[in-house]
Amino acid sequence: MNHTGHISPESPTRRLDPEPPPPGGVLWSTAGDIRSLLTLPAAFTLQVAHPAVGAGVDRYSVFRTDPWGRGERSLRSVMLWVYGGDEAVAEGRRVRRLHKEIRGTDTRGRRYHSLDPACYAWVHATGFPVAQYAGRYLFRRTTPEQDRQMYREWLQVGRILGLRDRDMPQTVEEFWPYYHRMLAEEIEPTKVARELVSTDAPLPRPEPASRVLRLLLRFSWPLLRPVYLRFRAFVTVGYMPPDARAAIGLEWTPAQERRLRRFSAAVRLLVPLLPERLRYLPRARAARARWRAGTR
């Protein structure tokens, strides 16, 4: 131990950095697959249906003024947690620093801080039930052991983000009672959650790097915006677990379910036929290629 009271790097008892999910695991196969992009709106909407999380996003986030940039930055962060290797821990620390000053009063008059375990753990937790439920449509139905493995890997992501084991249910069997209690006691149709499933919300047009695309969008965005908003609402509600839908007060009809099943079946059949360079996002593709080269 050095003079500051910290354990020195040479000490065998020093705290080790958390490990990201293992190469070849469940998240390694699915997180960077383009099909997972369809699940992100449901997870984000479930996050902000928490009164404190919704209040923080409403006050501090740029999701209204820069939704495309915010989405790109969030996706980059998720890819680093899973595929970043040594960069994963640094990204987790960056995310915590980003949320350090986010605090206020939630919709029920309670004081909150975004890094309070009750809030921070919920933001992380939502990814698991959404991925498991949507995965039945977009990938394949998982076995109980695969669910346990996915949850173990999701716990590793939580540690990357700075969550302690005591902040998170440690097994799938412990997770579901926690999840159902949160739906019953905390989750509500917050202002931000309602906006994310609205089909007439204001939405600035994307600003792609290509000058040609920017020009095309300038003229076509008035037609494309309502189409995109309807599609976003459709996949947001459709890929959200039914009990979460009910907690937020989202309607879902049998006709919508039939359309979702048809759409999902097409995606499930066609995406695996794509070459890897089109099927996986760039960071995932590069990490998978390095891993395969190293295992040969």
TrEMBL record:
Region (Disordered) residue spans: 1-24
GO molecular function, one term: oxidoreductase activity
Keywords for the protein's UniProt record, in alphabetical order: Oxidoreductase
Domain ER-bound oxygenase mpaB/mpaB'/Rubber oxygenase catalytic positions: 28-268
InterPro entries the UniProt entry points to: MPAB/Lcp_cat_dom (IPR018713)
EC class: oxidoreductase
Record's keyword annotation contains Endoplasmic reticulum: no
EC identifiers of the protein: 1.-.-.-
Keyword presence, Oxidoreductase: yes
Full protein name: Oxygenase MpaB family protein
